[in-house]
Amino acid sequence: MFRLKNVTRRFGGKAAVSAVSVDIPQGQMVGVIGRSGAGKSTMLRMINRLVDPSEGSIHFGDVAVSSLRGAALRNWQRDCAMIFQQFNLVPRLDVLTNVLLGRLNHRSTALSILNMFTREERIMAIAALERLGIEQTALQKAGTLSGGQQQRVAIARALMQQPKMILADEPIASLDPLNAKVVMDALRDINEREGITVITNLHTLDTARNYCERIIGMSAGRIVFDGAPRDLDAAAVRAIYGTGADGAEIDETVTSTSIKGSAGLVQDNVKESAGVTPLALAGI
């Protein structure tokens, strides 16, 4: 069980998140929705401890996450993988190395500095890329990939952490609908096959309804809705966005082209080298 207890985060005199309490059982896929500035990203960053809470506490099982320091905090950030809207890859490094960076908190500093990844780790990285359908990009520089491909590399890097929880902060906000579907399908697959808790901030109602078994709606730093997609009625939408369920008066961050039914339409520009396997490309 993951738990926030009366968590507040202030920036100066403004409370970005105010007295939030929520329990999330292991294995749920949770979508967090709300207008820009509602506190969604701040809440995820507090969970990962990129930002410390001003008040309240965060717990994962018996672990008081909000009190962790030093090595224990680094271990939590390994177990609680973070995926960002802008990917946070190292553009000049190849894709395989970017994925292998997910192992940094599993190994000694000396080995990390020397870039001495094991054969097993390289096989893990290739397997993660194959799972996401981008193994052919292994030796390309990450900065040469499309946005959708880069986000899949970021998900592969998160898998390399072997996390207990994945946090995705607006993972599809900068992607077209087809690549958005690929990314959301990947997150749902990880949630269902590994039983890993996934908490993702989303801009669109349709995406949250289609992919998440639970939706948390935030407004002005507070949780104003917490329930199943079927319970997200007109009153709930109004509480979150200040408008009706049809979305006619909701700003552009809420409405978008549906990403349902787009399977099989995404094509990557990078072609796999003829006759060369991904493991051979990786030097394995």
TrEMBL record:
Residues 2-245 form the ABC transporter domain. It comes from the Bacteria. The keyword Translocase applies. SMART domains: AAA. PANTHER family: AMINO ACID IMPORT ATP-BINDING PROTEIN (PTHR43166), PHOSPHONATES IMPORT ATP-BINDING PROTEIN PHNC (PTHR43166:SF6). Belongs to the ABC transporter superfamily. This is Phosphonate ABC transporter ATP-binding protein. It comes from Mycoplana rhizolycopersici. The gene is phnC.
